[in-house]
Write a structure and sequence with these properties.
It is a single chain. The chain is mainly alpha-helical and 308 residues long. It folds into two domains: 130 residues, no CATH class; 139 residues, no CATH class. The chain is 70% helix and 4% strand. The chain has twelve helices and three strands. A three-stranded antiparallel β-sheet has the order 1-2-3, with helices on one face. A hairpin with a 2-residue loop joins strand 2 and strand 3.
C-alpha cells in the first residue's frame, strides 16, 4: 500500500528525498524574487521622493563657478569609493540591520518638514541622512562601516546658505582687498581702499561675495578631506588639512590681483568677458593640484599593508 506522497513521487519519477531537498531551494528562489521586487519598488519610491531635491542640487551645482560647482563631482567620487570598499565583501553574505531605521526615519521626517517649508536644503540633508540608514537596512553593519567615509563625504555636496557664511564672506573679501592693495603698487598701479572697494585710476572696483574666494575655499576643504583619507601618516594628513584654507585664499588673492591689473591696463570691460569666470576656475586649478601633491602617493601605504 502506498501513501499519497509515495504515489505522487512514483508517478513523476522523482524520489521523495530529492523532492524534499529541492523544497528549500525553491523557497530561496521565491524569497530572492520577492526581495528583488521589494528593492525595485523601494528604488522607484526613493527616486520619486527625492527627484525634486536632486534637481535642486544640480541647478545649484551648475549655476556658476561661484556656487558649489564642485558639488557635481562629489556623487561620482562617493560611488567610486563605495564600490572600491565593497569589493572586498564580494561573495560574502550580508545581513541587514534594523539600526538603519534610526537614521532613515528622522531623514524622512526632515524631508516631510521641508515639504512644508520649501527650502529644499533640509530635503538635501535628508538624503545624506537616509543613505547610511538604507545601507544598514540592506547591506548590514560591516558593509556600512566600510563605506562610512564615502557616505559622510556627501556632506561636501550640500550648498551652504549665504546667511550662514556672511561673516566668512566678509572676512575673505577684506583679506583679498588688503592683499591686493599691497601687491598692485609693485605693478605701478596706484590704489587706495575703502571697505571692500579698490579705488583705481579707472574707477572703483568692488570685491563682492562672488569674488571672496569662498567657493574655492569650500572646494579646497572638500578635496583636502578626500586627499587626507587616502594619505598615509597623521602628520601628512594634518598638513593637507591645514594647508587647504591658505592655498585657497592665496589662489583667490592672485586672481583678484590679476583682474585688478587687467582692469587698469585694458579697461573695466574685461570683467564682462570670459576672462572673469575663467579666472574663477583657475583658482581651483592652482589650489587643488598642490593639495594632491601635499598628500603624496597613497600607493606606498597600500603596499606596506600587504595583502589582506
Amino acid at each position: 500500500m502506498q501513501t499519497p506522497t509515495n504515489v505522487s513521487t512514483a508517478s513523476t519519477g522523482i524520489p521523495a528525498g530529492a523532492a524534499l531537498a529541492d523544497a528549500p531551494a525553491a523557497d530561496a528562489r521565491v524569497a530572492s524574487t520577492w526581495r528583488t521586487v521589494g528593492l525595485c519598488v523601494l528604488a522607484i519610491e526613493l527616486i520619486v521622493l527625492f527627484a525634486p531635491t536632486v534637481t535642486f542640487l544640480w541647478e545649484r551645482w551648475t549655476l556658476s563657478v561661484w556656487h558649489n560647482a564642485h558639488g557635481a563631482l562629489v556623487p561620482p567620487v562617493v560611488a567610486f569609493l563605495s564600490y572600491h570598499e565593497l569589493k572586498r565583501f564580494k561573495g560574502t553574505p550580508g545581513q541587514g540591520s534594523a539600526w538603519g531605521f534610526v537614521l532613515l526615519l528622522p531623514a524622512l521626517l526632515l524631508h516631510a518638514l521641508d515639504a512644508g517649508m520649501h527650502t529644499q536644503l533640509l530635503a538635501a540633508i535628508s538624503i545624506v541622512m537616509a543613505l547610511p540608514g538604507l545601507s544598514l537596512l540592506l547591506m548590514g553593519t560591516a558593509r556600512t562601516r566600510a563605506i562610512a567615509f564615502p557616505l559622510l563625504f556627501l556632506v561636501a555636496a550640500l550648498p551652504i546658505p549665504l546667511g550662514m557664511t556672511e561673516v566668512i564672506h566678509m572676512q575673505l573679501r577684506l583679506i583679498a582687498v588688503a592683499a591686493t592693495s599691497w601687491v598692485v603698487p609693485f605693478l605701478g598701479i596706484p590704489v587706495f581702499t575703502e571697505g571692500t572697494t579698490l579705488h583705481l585710476s579707472t574707477g572703483p572696483l568692488h570685491i563682492t561675495d562672488a569674488c571672496s574666494g569662498f567657493s574655492t575655499l569650500y572646494a579646497a576643504a572638500a578635496v583636502a578631506v578626500l586627499t587626507a583619507y587616502s594619505t598615509p601618516g597623521w602628520r601628512r594628513r594634518s598638513l593637507v588639512l591645514g594647508m587647504a584654507a591658505p592655498l585657497a585664499i592665496a589662489a583667490n588673492i592672485l586672481r583678484v590681483v590679476s583682474l585688478t591689473a587687467l582692469v587698469v591696463w585694458t579697461g573695466p570691460e574685461v570683467l564682462d568677458t570670459f576672462i572673469h569666470p575663467l579666472s574663477g576656475m583657475l583658482t581651483f586649478a592652482l589650489a587643488l593640484p598642490v593639495i594632491f601633491w601635499l598628500g603624496g602617493d597613497p600607493r606606498p601605504a597600500a603596499a606596506a599593508e600587504g595583502p589582506a
